[in-house]
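Support case: user asked for a sample of complex input and structure output to validate their parser. Sending the pair below.
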Amino acid sequence: MPLPKFRLEKRESVPNWFRMALPFIAIGISFIFSSIIILFAGKNPVTSIYSIFYGALGTRLGLMETLVKATPLILTGIAVSFAFTGKFWNIGAEGQLYAGALAATWAGISNFNIPSFLYIILLLVVGFIAGGLWALIPGYLKAKLKVDDVVTTLLMNYIILYLVTAILEGPWRDPVTMWPQSIMISPNAEFPKLLQKSRVHFGLIVGLLVVFLVYIIIKHTKLGFNIRAIGANPNASNFLGINVTKTIIITSLISGGIAGLAGVGEVAGLHYHLTENISPGYGYTGIVIAMLGGLNPIGVLFASFFFAIIITGAQYMSRATGVTSFIADVIQGITLLVLLAMLILYEYRIRRVE
Amino acid sequence: MDEIVLMKNIKKRFPGVLANDGIDFYANKGEIVSLLGENGAGKTTLMKILYGLYTKDSGEIFIKGKKVEINSPKDAINLGIGMVHQHFTLVNPFTVTENIILGLSSNRFTINIETSKEKIKEYMKKYEIFVDPDAKISELSVGEKQKVEILKILYRDIDILILDEPTAVLTPQEVKELFKTLKILKEEGKTIIFISHKLYEVLEISDRIIVLRNGKVSGERDPKKTNRRELAALMVGKEVFDVISLTPSEQKDVILDLKEITALSYRGHVALKNINLNVKGGEIVGLAGVSGNGQKELEEIISGIRKPLKGKIFFKNIDITHTTPKERINLGIGRIPEDRMDLGLILDLPVFENLVVECYDKNPFSGKLFLNYPKIESYSKKLIEEFDIRTPNLIVKTKTLSGGNLQKCILARILSMNPEFILAAQPTRGLDVGATEFIHKKLLEVRDKGGGVLLISEDLDEILNLSDRILVIYNGEIMGELKRGELTREDIGLMMTGTKKEDLHATT
């Protein structure tokens, strides 16, 4: 029997339902692949995946932890999404998060004598600036010298990570425990808790506020118009009089600043000190979230909660079924790969040929 | 006869154009045949059919007397047909040798560079084409790259060599070398099909000249028994057309003034040489020429996306040589780019945003930070009605519109800003009669209101119809200036193919 033949055919436009369905199809396929891996581990994939969702949503404790995990993910997700909208390929949200965390810790341990709400604002400001400046370097290099932003943003991550390690091993080492971690920040600088008996903190509000602001910037401001135009066609934008260089630089600054806020939240809302592993890769997950959310602020919000569920639930599943929690990383990785492979369907449809 | 290639009654239709309308073509063994014609005459299409890149709609092809179906370049190469394209198909980081043997190794897993190199050197000696076989393609000049393309084809032992506008990117010295090689090839019994619009070269190199016009053969000539004037006439046609009568324009001051502009192309060769050109208020200046003779670069220079190597541009006596596109828009320069899909519009943005993309940052469309969408929408709605842009609504992506409507979007956006000068590059290319007329009418309105228009077009009828003055560009130089009705189509045809105005009457 001859195999049926298929070919890709260029399509004029993408139906809206397909745009909406694509992330769900990607998630579905990634669950199927993960199930195969769980089967290899000799466990039942159905109960394992069920326990991910039960662990993340089925109990109050689980739900609270999901919100805690969602907080940095919303910020890194929206940071990446903002950059990608203007074709600034920011792979460096992880590093910008650390830059923000470093600056916030510096301000936090300096014990300024100011009221708490001012102290919190100060932390947010210095964190935003630090993250922004860290992204500004690749942004400037791209805008002025056409240096590839994927490479520079990615490599900047390693620089800041080792810088943080050096500072924590050296000048900021905790003098009491001698662990490579900073001393506690001033209690005045701590983010308030949002719910009793939980770790959900003010950072979540910051995240939601930023999502709203990004939505407004993209949809309703001149800057947002420039960013969308450059994202759609940089050559035409330049021809039509949009200042591409300036817009890329501003985009990088804001994107990095937002990622920096994620770092501020982890220090001031959750840990109250800086450690080398304050982020288990939130910056990289942000890339998956931005893509899964279709670079749409509302989509990014949903995608962040989805991955918060996976990360939180995977830990519960690991305790409940014995499947390693690394399955969360597997799901993340496969979702991104499937999604990227499927993006070709935005441009082409599959046609059967006789 | 030794007809090595015979093409009979070839027809090929593309959406909207009949590119080949029953063409008969043949080439003999050991002959150099030239295919002469304007852009869009069907030369390249015919040869791409022979090379298997396009499939013909109807007609027959015989190679060495045998009827064949050529469905891919691979089929063509197996039949002994090779083609050198206008745009090179070389792998930049690879060496010359690697590029030549790419895809050829007899054994699946190993390649023997050294033996191949020796063989290539033999070919170089034989055909007098010399390039360093170890040089990387990225280090080569344009002319050298073309040599590699030719070597690549000779290495595949072909008998029929098609060259598509091979001299367009070459210096005069390189053209000489190329012609020497072609003569050696001919003596060896190879057949060469030479696509060109340059009359001097065609007359110099060919054994036989076939002229195409509008997808048909308009004549076949022996170069020894013809002259440039006759060939130019065959190329551009002789029919009389209706020249619309223009209201006499009021001579106003110079608006746009280009002084001694020299510029490079994106490939790095000199594309414009010492261009002097001005446009006054109340006139349309037509720039005629076969495309690829510097029009693109001139458009980019006036638009502000390419900086000249030398020379200055003045707009109403202000030096704008170093201004950005935005500053030029604000001064009152409207630009209709040749590439309307990739420069004139941002196709992934909705229609209404494209209608304001050059003025969204001004009152009343925006304040300091925010866009005023209600204002933008009502303004766009007005433009859509006024210019009769066919779109289902304001928010569909611009790319869903038809070609004519895309051009109307650009025109609506530019004209609504009341520019004093308009650069119109190929404004009606590919458009239907209705849209073309509409655009002509609008350009004339600008002229009658005292604005200046520079019309760059390959369409000679369009140029003759609309222009108060005509300039002809060839090889990056202005060949001369004509007043409306001063010279014939044929003269312009000669100038488009390399004759200076002052030499026109020496051609017999």
